Amino acid sequence: MAAAGGSVFASGFPPGIPRHSYPAPRARRLALISSTQRLFAVSTAEQLPSAPTSVPGPTPTTEGELGQNRRHWKDREPNGSAAASPFMEDEGSELEGKKRLEDFFDLAKDLIRSAGGLPRWFSPLECASRINNSPLLLYLPGIDGTGAGLASQHKKLGKIFDVWCLHIPVMDRTPFTDLVKLIEKTVKSESHNSPNRPIYLVGESLGACLALAVAARNPDLDLVLILSNPATSFNASQAQSLVPLLEIMPDQVQLTHPYLLSLMRGDPLNTLRATSEKALPPQEMVAELSKDLLNMSAFISVLADILPKGTFLWKLQMLKSASAYTNSRLHAVKAQTLLLISERDQLLPSQAEASRLYRAVPGCEIRRYEENGHFLFLQEDGNGIDLVTTIKGATFYRRGKSQDYISDYLPPTHSEFIKLYESSKWFNDMTAPVMLSTLEDGTIVRGLAGIPYEGPVLLVGYHMLLGLEIIPLMTQFLIERNIHLRGIAHPMLFPKYKEHGSTLSPFFYDAFHIMGAVPVSGANLFKLFSRKSHVLLYPGGAREALHRKGEEYKLFWPEQAEFVRMAAKFGAKIVPFGTVGEDDIGQVVLDYEDLMKIPYYRDQIRRNTEGNVKLRTTATGEVANQDMHLPGVMPKIPGRFYYLFGKPIDTEGRKQELKDRKKSHELYLEVKSEVERCIAYLQDKREGDPYRSIFSRLVYQTVNGSSSDIPTFEL
């Protein structure tokens, strides 16, 4: 697709059909779309489609810094400093407040105004320049058939995908199997044109059946399926009862359209709650609610044009055949699949269907949404999902045949980080972290001024109980220094999510993926250093984070110097650091030894451990004992977290010297000793912190304001 153009095409672009490109800022989108002669290049020829022209370019970023005020930085605009933002360009920040239904109906109106004809693809005008080698995303609509279901997300999707949407004209009566063949023809053509890139099929309801059918017929193609509430369960749904009702209902009576619109809107109480949370004056709140009611009446009129009685009947009958056709071929689906399931789906029994599909489709993963109805992409009451964020969190974004956690990684947007920050703010407030760093002259200062801004930098430290120190650490580096840490993580954070038996929600893991966690491996560390990244490494790994009773602040590092020579190869600066505070928030009462004596937990630990990639298989001693378990922890009245980052150790120019095993081991022991020194320093100094207790901190903030920085011990 051109940098800012739009097109609609049937199954091909004959040479005589021109393509058009126009500048398309969001404010002008509807004006441009309303002129269908300019927007669409249309063909009904039975040829394979040509792809929109790709626009190469780097991952978009914005300029600016986050601000120094750690309490209110998120409310500030970038101030134009020279430091580049670590965030991906935030094209989708409007998704929370934007009226998704309004976007959908605005685009749908313009699409159905165009001539009828055959089903065709259109490339949204908002999908402007993309990052290099962006994969193709084909959006397959649900029962409405307009292809406008992702209208509010086009701009954000268009940054990382080449987006094509299928439009099925209102009066079209193409059978399900012919739609499958049309999509299949496109998929085969584009797979031939770009054999090393995956093709994404995003389908909802009926569209999910189309995606599964295409995948079943083409098991050897590299397809990624993102399916929202698949209609494979139609035969078990209450929607079947609509067919006889529609057959006897007069054309003038429109009972089904208000019902469908109510499903699109989601829970009206959530809408009312979202409006009240804006804290508007009573008059403005009434005006906004009145406007919503007026919009609803207008939407019903458009919905009647999208799904007149004959079309609605045809679509319901198609759902029946689509469900039967797809279910008979599920065994042949080999594609990587992500199910997005609404637990309040009133149209289909999606909750139960998800479990069935999970068992039937190999490599399938599920994300469940407790507060959402059937129309997952249209819900606008604050529970609507951001598809890009979902794909990133599930690590489903890739541009090649296999996942590359470095080159395929997309940094969080500013709004994504805000959500993660807000979700963990209670923990930051509870632990009131004190971060200290060491300048080049050895002076210890409060804050992160001693951390080198230019990479590569390797931060090597102690892993507190359950790794709880990571939460304040990651956020503070972004807030104070605009530095995005890439954590080297245990493979347990990356395996296929188990629908039954997992102790944690998949969204817990998704947060780590969005923030840039990388599976531990020499290859990944090499790639991060080559990109001059700031890398976070815990040599003690799971053994340190899941330590036993009485092992607080004890390092469990391997004997071999694992990271020194790699750091020296790139001239990386090594920053040793220590953290303390775990013993002020909880006490281990059931450790590994205790749990292994209980048959139920012993079996669970063995299952969890066997299901994970084995690390340090040649290591001996305690560091090799990395059985996966959750210790029993008794909470305490919260104390405070403390961090000390030691003086950076520069390996620049020491590559040859550190090739010598003895020399590299000496540096390794120096780093380990410095981490232990940092821990000891913090343990000693915190005794003199008058605000170590949460009660003294609450008193201080009551007097000085909740946003005030809380003092600590004398440096």
TrEMBL record:
Residues 1-13 have a biased composition (Low complexity). It comes from the Eukaryota. Residues 176-378 form the Serine aminopeptidase S33 domain. The keyword GTP-binding does not apply. One of its GO terms (biological process) is triglyceride biosynthetic process. CDD domains: LPLAT_MGAT-like. Keywords: Acyltransferase, Transferase. Residues 1-20, 45-93 are annotated as: Disordered. InterPro entries: AB_hydrolase_fold, DAGAT, Hydrolase_4. Belongs to the diacylglycerol acyltransferase family. This is Acyltransferase-like protein At3g26840, chloroplastic isoform X3. It comes from Punica granatum.
